Amino acid sequence: MTRILGIETSCDETGVAVLANGRTILANEVASQVDVHAAFGGVVPEIASRRHTECISQLTELALREAGGAPVDAVAATAGPGLMGSLLVGVNFAKALAYGWGVPYVPVHHLEGHIFSVFLAEEPPDFPFLALIVSGGHTCLIWCPAPHRYEWLGTTRDDAVGECFDKVARLLDLPYPGGPSIQKAAEAGDPAHIAFPRSMVHDGTLDFSYSGLKTAVLYQLQEGADDRADIAASFQAAAVDILVEKTKAAVKRMDAPCVVVAGGVAANRLLRERLQEALPVPVALPPFALCLDNGAMIAAAGASRLAHGHVGAMTDTANSSLPLQ
Fold this sequence. Notes:
The protein folds into two domains: about 5-115 and about 290-305, Nucleotidyltransferase, domain 5 (2-Layer Sandwich); about 125-285, ATPase, nucleotide binding domain (Nucleotidyltransferase, domain 5, 2-Layer Sandwich). The protein is about 40% helix and about 20% strand. The protein has helices spanning about 35-40, 45-65, 85-100, 110-115, 160-170, 180-185, 210-220, 230-255, 270-280, 295-305, and strands spanning about 5-10, 15-20, 25-30, 75-80, 105-110, 130-135, 140-145, 150-155, 260, 285. α5 packs parallel to α7.
């Protein structure tokens, strides 16, 4: 039985997990910093890295105890992209453990971790597939023909969709993080109340743009719109429509047999429902608990990389703009 320790510290969650045979979660601990950063309406990098340093050792001890305390066969950690200070905490801690235990260190790309979170679901997909990654820092479509091979199809030209949710939540005086807050507020609203723009939907590319949608919400508020529920519902509908239409276009272009959806925004109920209704192919989704950043997804990607001979070196370091390939 191969056991992988996975460490995730790319932003404001400290995640540590132990995975057996690339599929079975033996432990998955996450220390969230949401309450710390809520007062600022977003993540403060210096605070985030300090919090990782304060808890990563204890969180790892807890995960190892829950997993039975047996040795692991490799240590995987998010090497990028992300906040540089936060990444360095996880990478250096992972390399120290790997060196001390005499096992391989496996660097993992953060987006690859999100993609592999779907392989921890009850019915994992088969390659090839199309991946839609939606989070606070990323909105992209990636063609995945085989394990650890990727073709970048489209990305955001400005705000990521999760970032847009956070900014609109601040405009509406809703709590951080914005995704859950807007989803809850939208439950009492009319999604057709305001015809917000669906930017770049018919431009022929697979890129995204969310800055115009955020600005449209601001203009509505400046013009006197005050029904927060209707604004939230109309905004959420527009944000989701853009994702659905772009994904439909990518499925057609690539003749994709399956779509994988991952990242924090993959927990949005409306997005899940609309994609499953609108797409002509199966949609693979991670469990809700694995949509946000966590160590299990890093361990899953690390287990696959280890099996394919992709290991790191002790001279490797973090890279805040690490390319996917």
